[in-house]
């Protein structure tokens, strides 16, 4: 039997890999936008009218995940995947996705938004980029995955970068919540790393685009039905619904978040999880740029140097330098 031209196959594969890299970069850009836009929303009414600095980010997270779930649901329905979502929720892998959602949503997202509230998007994004590192450690413990020496080196570099970022407050110590914000950033990284291990296991059986929709639906429901009542957040939540400008701002952030998740999972499917993760955590750089351009963030030497170390360390964790020629 005559074989088809190999050149065309290679060209097709190359285009797919480039497309995956494009999705990965898009996921990083849009996730940075999500954080910066939410940070902007937290400076608007009703969050500025005497609202607790602890409750405001939780309300914003609840609205962000709920609207993000709606954006994703609209997308999946338009692609004919609604029945697949309903069917997948009832399965064991669907349960694992829901569990991952609880860790990555109510736990990690609240920690991340508290970090944005306390230290700003630049610091929160830089330290939360450690999530792939935590994921690697947890995968070694629970999934028995081998961790090579280069990965441990990457982890050490990442930790060094994170310590460098958190060593000196940008304003000489006048921010009393600075170290609380740094701790929240680490908590977010740990939560998302844990979620990654669980969701990777579940997505062996579930379409990633369906899985991320289940994740956001679960997170939105838990935020609204469980977390908000616990923190007495329904009052500010109702005010938010009656404040069109802020609601539209969070809707824009949620759309960016939905695009980020979809792009990240698409990148993982096309060019592999390692490359997808490496491209996704470029949101640290994009976050620094957006924070500087649109929020007047001060880029201290510690922040920039630490962010660079974290990026280099995470890339060393997820990419084998011996196979670097496979990168686009």
Please give the number of β-strands: 0
> What characterizes the major β-sheet?
none
Overall mean confidence score, pLDDT: 84
**SSE pattern:** HHHHHHHHHHHHHH
Q: How much strand content do the residues show?
A: under 5%
Estimated radius of gyration: 20 Å
Poorly predicted runs of 5 or more residues: 1-8
Classify the secondary structure makeup into a structural class: mainly alpha
Q: Helix segment count?
A: 14
End-to-end Cα distance: 33 Å
Helicity, as a percent range? over 70%
Cα shape: globular
Itemize the secondary structure elements and their pairings.
Layout: H1 6-41, H2 55-78, H3 82-89, H4 92-119, H5 121-128, H6 131-142, H7 149-166, H8 178-202, H9 208-230, H10 234-241, H11 244-271, H12 273-280, H13 283-294, H14 301-318
